Amino acid sequence: MRRFSSLVWSSVGKKILTGITGLALCLFIIEHLTGNLLLLHSDGEPFNKYAHTLHSLGEILIVLELGLAAVFIGHMIVGVRIAMDKEKSRPREMRYYRTANAGKPSRKTWGSVSMIVTGIVLFIFLIIHLKMFRFGPGIEQGYVTQIDGKPAVDLYRLVDESFQNIWVVIGYVAVMLLLGLHLSHGFWSAFQSLGVNHPRYTPVIYTVGIVFAVVMAVGFLFLPIWIYFRGGA
């Protein structure tokens, strides 16, 4: 067990862990955005059916959520450890120098130097997000609809009402911009951490990562803006 722990917390082990957990979270983000795009249906039925299908998984959903939480927390812990190790390895006189975008051809960008800050903000946002929607008002509070003739949580109405608040929309959009910044470095870095580093493929992965970050950020931030300006359902 001690040998396994040493392997995990070795330099190589931490890089592999952050790469695997990072890519796993990227897959979750894709799935989550795909489901959220159902909010574009103004009648709300497709989105509520999607949410009801997930909730009907019961204990399986709980296991999946716990697994996702473990991946997220593990990714954050390993990321912090890697950042701390990098800081310790820098010469003392260099530790307090300001970091910024180094420009091309360097891979040092605003995304790379802000990973810890954006990661912490995303973690706080996730807690608020879960409180609002996953563990927020339900059938008992009047958010009820009918799916296949049975009562179900009207999550569409809850989301719709939440995004009628301009401050919620502004906060959500701001965090999604930070998500894009985090992904702009995280996607490419995950492959590098797993050893995928080749003069021929790395530039392609880097470009795909930037595109991925923009698409995910714009996709998520578009929804609250669209719902707000569309008005209540």
Which features does this protein show?
elongated, 3 helical TM bundles of succinate and fumarate reductases, two-stranded antiparallel ribbon, 233 residues, 70% helix, mainly alpha
Write up what this structure looks like.
It is a single chain. With about 230 residues, the chain is mainly α. Strands 1-2 form a two-stranded antiparallel ribbon. The radius of gyration is 20 Å and the shape is elongated. About 20% of the residues are buried.
Which geometry do the CA atoms define? elongated
What is the helix/strand order? HHHHHHEEHHH
The gyration radius over C-alpha positions equals 20 Å
Total beta strand runs: 2
Let me know the largest β-sheet.
2 strands, antiparallel
CATH homologous superfamily caption = Fumarate reductase/succinate dehydrogenase, transmembrane subunit
Write down the overall mean pLDDT. Answer: 85
Distance between the termini: 55 Å
Instruction: Write down the domain tally.
Output: 1
Question: In which order are the strands of the major sheet placed?
Answer: 1-2
CATH class: Mainly Alpha
Task: Give a short synopsis of this structure.
The chain has a single domain (2-92, 103-230), classed as Fumarate reductase/succinate dehydrogenase, transmembrane subunit (3 helical TM bundles of succinate and fumarate reductases), CATH 1.20.1300.10. It has 9 helices and 2 strands.
Helices and strands, with pairings:
Blueprint: H1 2-8, H2 11-36, H3 45-55, H4 59-89, H5 110-113, H6 115-134, E1 144-147, E2 150-153, H7 155-162, H8 166-193, H9 202-230
Antiparallel strand pairs: 1-2
Helix pairs in contact: 2-4, 2-8, 2-9, 4-6, 6-8, 8-9
